[in-house]
Amino acid sequence: MSPQDLLDPRPLTGEPLSLDLLNTRWVHEGAPRDLLTGTDGLAVWLRANGLDDRFTADAATLRHTLDARDALLRAVDGSLDEGARGVDAVLAHGRIRATLTVDGPGERPEFDDPSWGPAWLAARDYLRLLATAADRIRACAHEACVLHFFDTSRNGTRRWCSMAACGNRAKASRHYARTKDA
């Protein structure tokens, strides 16, 4: 079976690139899962984010992508100060080149080594989210969930990665506690 045949098994997809990278780790039926245990999983993640036409799912790209994921996790779940060094180390492997195209001004990312591309793009995306609305970068409020999301709700009060999954479990748990006490 080729990597193109593998389906994305993650419960939450479609988040901004940096958070989608964090969401390559999740919990299923109480057991931790990790999409990036090998290059096949990396190929799934690259394809899910439209990067498979620009980058190769090889060992070097996997290693750099895992470095970025660890740095982003420290920045998001630890402290910005704690994660900054790791995120900066990833960002040191690329840059933005200003361009002029027929459509006007543009930007194009460039990398020291193409295997740093996905990691660099994820780290750069995190900077964009921080500049856009840092307070809307969230971890799911369910105690057993490790997923992250960017809150795009109108009033900024989203708490769950998915209302259908984690939000419903929390409501059911509260209902059970109320009925048990009654």
Would you kindly provide a written description of the structure presented here, covering whatever features stand out?
It is a single chain. This protein is α+β, with helices and mostly antiparallel strands and about 180 residues long. The chain has helices at about 15-20, 40-50, 60-80, 80-90, 115-135, 165-180, and strands at about 25-30, 30-35, 95-100, 105-110, 135-140, 150. The protein is globular and about 65 Å long. The N and C termini lie far apart (about 55 Å).
List the helices and strands and how they pair.
Blueprint: H1 17-22, E1 25-28, E2 31-34, H2 39-48, H3 59-78, H4 80-91, E3 94-101, E4 104-111, H5 117-133, E5 137-139, E6 148-150, H6 163-181
Antiparallel strand pairs: 1-2, 3-4, 5-6
How do the strands of the widest beta sheet line up side by side? 1-2
Tell me the structural class: alpha+beta
Helical proportion?
40-55%
Main beta sheet, described?
Answer: 2 strands, antiparallel
Spans of 5+ residues with little confidence (pLDDT < 50)?
A: none
Instruction: Spell out the helices and strands N to C.
Output: HEEHHHEEHEEH
Instruction: Give the mean pLDDT.
Output: 91
SS field, number of helical segments: 6
Q: What is the beta-strand fraction?
A: 15-25%
First-last Cα distance: 54 Å
Instruction: Please state the overall shape, judged from the principal axes of the Cα atoms.
Output: globular
Number of strands: 6
Q: What integer value in Å does the Rg equal?
A: 18 Å
Task: Give keywords.
two-stranded antiparallel sheet; 182 residues; globular; 16% strand; alpha+beta
